[in-house]
Amino acid sequence: MGALTFASSSWASGRQPHTTKSAPGIVGIRLVPLPGKPSANPLARSYIVARLAPGTRLSRTVDIDNATNKVAHVAVYVAAAKIVHGNFIFASDHGANSLSGWTSVSDHELVLAPHSHALDNVNVKVPKSAPSGARFAVVWASVSAAPRSGAGITLVSRVGVRMYVTIGPGGSAPSKFTLASLATARSSSGDALVVTEIHNTGANTLDLTGVLTLTNGPGGLTAGPFHATMGSLLSPGSSEPITVRLPPNFPRGPWRATLRVSSGTLTRSRSATVTFPRRYALRSAAGRGGVPLWFWAGAVLLLAFAVVALVLSRARPRRRRKPS
Fold first, then answer.
1. Residue 295 phi, psi (nearest 5)
2. Are 2 and 142 in contact (CB under 8 A)?
3. How many helices (DSSP H) and strands (DSSP E) are in the chain?
4. In angstroms, how far is CA 112 from the centroid of its own chain?
């Protein structure tokens, strides 16, 4: 659905800057699907997803509808976006980047009667000199509401369709990613962690989900599935950590851990036999090979008390003997 955007924010994160069907009382936008079999890429079902060679063009159509009871003056434009730590971040207002500069719309302003809709064309023209890489933008449909008193903040409600465009050799390319080996750790609060890293080795942005299952635990226990914590989006050539967090009192193991990560129909898995570290024996560089941190903290505290006591004893005035 749409998001209220204020001029004070230069960038904002949004998991769904699009709408497939307008709810009553709002202006909505959706991507008109291409004919034929739906794409296996889950992002392509709602967003403009393409791999374009330098010097080529792309045209897609969006459907903008007015589900309100009033005439809507809708501004249509393309603005910048980026992916940061797995989150889709879009610029406020008309912030620009290379993809937004290459993209135009046929109608920049639509006047929609109540409960009506209109189609608008989105055209991408990639320069011949465009370098390879992933580009991101949003096609926005924006409606402004001026303050009734004539002064104050103007609210802008906008809904959009994301654009994921990769510049490279033309034609579709397979999605690919790899998972690093599984490892265990403890958080600062004592939670048991299973950690790894994912790397996007393909040419498409990935829309990710992941689950961990644990089998062959102490006494034959099984546990899970547990949802992995990671950025939902991963651009080509990027890497991100994956963490699965378990309670501090979770049995240490050993366990047979299997992590499955999916992007659409593409799934990769990693398995390993793991044992979680002891809860109160975290290792650190200052811990000298795994000696509990509380031991060294206590030793430093006792040494500090000893130094203070020595200083005070030397500073205490001595009593003079009376002459006999």
1. -65, -50
2. no
3. 2, 22
4. 34
Residue 296 maps to a domain: no
Q: 69 Cβ partners below 8 Å, 6+ apart? A: 25, 114, 115
The one-letter amino acid code at 71 reads V
What 3 state SS string does 12-45 have? EECCCCCCCCCCCCCEEEEECCCCCCCCCCHHHH
Instruction: Assign residue 191 the CATH number of its domain.
Output: 2.60.40.10
pTM over 0.85: no
Residue 188 included in any domain = yes
Q: 92 and 13 in contact (C-beta within 8 Å)? A: no
User: Is 303 within a domain?
Assistant: no
Residue reference for tokens 């903008």: 64
User: Is there a single domain that holds both residue 70 and residue 123?
Assistant: yes
Supply 93's token pair. 């207002």
Give me 123's structure tokens: 């055209």
In a domain, 45, yes or no: yes
Distance, CA of 66 to CA of 71 (rounded, Å): 8
Q: Provide the residue range defining the domain that includes 256.
A: 177-274
- Cα torsion angle, 237, 273, 262, 249, sign: negative
Task: Name the most confidently modeled range: 19-28, 36-45, 275-284, 301-310.
Answer: 36-45
> How far apart are the C-alpha atoms of 121 and 28, rounded to whole Å?
16
| 45 and 101 together in one domain | yes
The answer to whether the beta carbons of residues 231 and 208 sit under 8 Å apart is yes
What is the bridge-based pairing of β-strands 209-215 and 255-263? Answer: antiparallel
Give the model confidence (pLDDT) of 6-37 as tens digits. 222 344 444 444 444 555 558 899 999 888 77
Cα–Cα dist 131/215, whole Å: 47
Counted domains in the chain:
2
20 and 156 together in one domain: yes
